[in-house]
Amino acid sequence: MKIFVIELYEDDPEKSTGRKMVRFGFAKYTEKPRGIVLNPLSEEVISIDDVEIVNKYGLSVIDSSWNKSDAKFYARFMSRFSRRLPLLFAGNPINYAKPYKLSSLEAVSASLYILNFIDISLKLLSLYKWGKTFYDLNKELLESYRGKRKDEIIEIEKSFLKEEPQQ
Ligand SMILES: C[S@@+](CC[C@H](N)C(=O)[O-])C[C@H]1O[C@@H](n2cnc3c(N)ncnc32)[C@H](O)[C@@H]1O
C-alpha cells in the first residue's frame, strides 16, 4: 500500500499525525500529489470506485494546519484525483466530534477502511490512544461506506445527515 504525505511543516512536529505515519513506516513523504489526493473541498467522495487508482498510484494526504487550510489553499491541490471523505467525526482531542475535520491519520485510515483495507486501516489507528475513539465514533458509518460505490455513499451520507441534529 502506497501512502504519501505532502508535508507542509505547519504544525508542531511532535503532534503531526502525518509525520508519525512516516516515522512508523506506514507512509512516505512526497513533494507532488500521487494517486488519489484527500482534499476536504473536493466535490467527489472517495469510494471503492477509486481502489484501482490507489492500488496502482497510491493515496496522498495533505498534512497542513487546519488554521492555514482555507479554500484558496485547497484549490491548489484540486484535480480530477481529489476526493473528500463522506460524513465522519474526528476522534482526536483537538477536533473531537467535529464532522469532516479529521487528522491526516484519521483521513487515511478512513479512506483505507472504505476501500476495504481493514487491517492497515486499524493498524494506523493503533498508533494513537484516540484511534479507538475515532473507530468507536465512526464504526457504523465506516461499515456502511465500506466497499460501496460513490452514489451509494452519497445516499448513505444523506440519510445520516438527516438524523444528525444541525449545529
Ligand atoms: C488539514 S490536515 C491537519 C493535519 C493535522 N495537523 C494532523 O497532524 O493530523 C488534515 C488532512 O487530512 C485530510 N482530510 C481531513 N479531513 C478530510 C475530509 N473530510 N475529506 C478529505 N480529506 C480530509 C486532508 O488531506 C487534510 O489536509
From TrEMBL:
Its EC number is 2.5.1.157. It catalyses: an N(1)-methylpseudouridine in rRNA + S-adenosyl-L-methionine = N(1)-methyl-N(3)-[(3S)-3-amino-3-carboxypropyl]pseudouridine in rRNA + S-methyl-5'-thioadenosine + H(+). The keyword rRNA processing applies. S-adenosyl-L-methionine binds at residues 17, 62, 85, 100, 104. Keywords: Cytoplasm, Ribosome biogenesis, rRNA processing, S-adenosyl-L-methionine, Transferase. Pfam families: Ribo_biogen_C. The keyword Transport does not apply. Aminocarboxypropyltransferase that catalyzes the aminocarboxypropyl transfer on pseudouridine corresponding to position 914 in M.jannaschii 16S rRNA. It constitutes the last step in biosynthesis of the hypermodified N1-methyl-N3-(3-amino-3-carboxypropyl) pseudouridine (m1acp3-Psi). It comes from Acidianus ambivalens (Desulfurolobus ambivalens). One of its GO terms (cellular component) is cytoplasm. InterPro entries: Tsr3-like, Tsr3_C. PANTHER family: 18S RRNA AMINOCARBOXYPROPYLTRANSFERASE, RIBOSOME BIOGENESIS PROTEIN TSR3 HOMOLOG. Belongs to the TDD superfamily. TSR3 family. This is 16S rRNA aminocarboxypropyltransferase. Residues 36-161 form the 16S/18S rRNA aminocarboxypropyltransferase Tsr3 C-terminal domain. It is found in: Cytoplasm. GO terms for molecular function: rRNA small subunit aminocarboxypropyltransferase activity; S-adenosyl-L-methionine binding. One of its GO terms (biological process) is enzyme-directed rRNA pseudouridine synthesis.
